[in-house]
Amino acid sequence: MAATRKLQGEIERCLKKVTEGVETFEDIWQKVHNATNSNQKEKYEADLKKEIKKLQRLRDQIKSWIASGEIKDKSTLLDYRKLIETQMERFKVVERETKTKAYSKEGLGAAQKMDPAQKEKEEISAWLVNSIDNLNIQVDQFESEIESLLAGKKKKLDKDKQDRMDDLKIKLERHRHHIRKLETLLRMLDNMSVEVGQLSILQIRRIKD
Q: Can you say whether the dihedral through the CA atoms of 61, 63, 68, 69 is positive or negative?
């Protein structure tokens, strides 16, 4: 009984930190979008990154409790995990906007003067990063749904839920496989161990599919 009370206390403290962290994230997110100059914006974006890292650590803790057999009703934990993942998706949008603007700062003239092979390399790298981000978001969604199905189970899932579980596991494995392949390609491209001429977004898309 004492151990259960201790665990419940830890969970309550963690969820309180999540609530406070999300409020702080929202406050900084507003500052990022209301910043009047680039220096301010960069500072707030750095603060936003620190805050999302804190929330991700709390998410890892919540995931471990969800996977644990000690907690019967996991609905609140699942809700808080989803809350954190929503902020993670918002942060990825800000991150992508920052990368896009950083590239555009160099100006169209510089882009036109860029070596065609280098330009193609950057386009492929950007596509790879974006694809990996999107796949990771879907992986998080699949994992969350699997945990939701497991959270309410007794001894055995009914047929519809079991079919959905099997389908999610197949999708999860396929997505992880694609992520590994795309990350390998990205590293090879960065290390120049593969020629840009050997790759194209169309070819990579075929690998991904």
A: positive
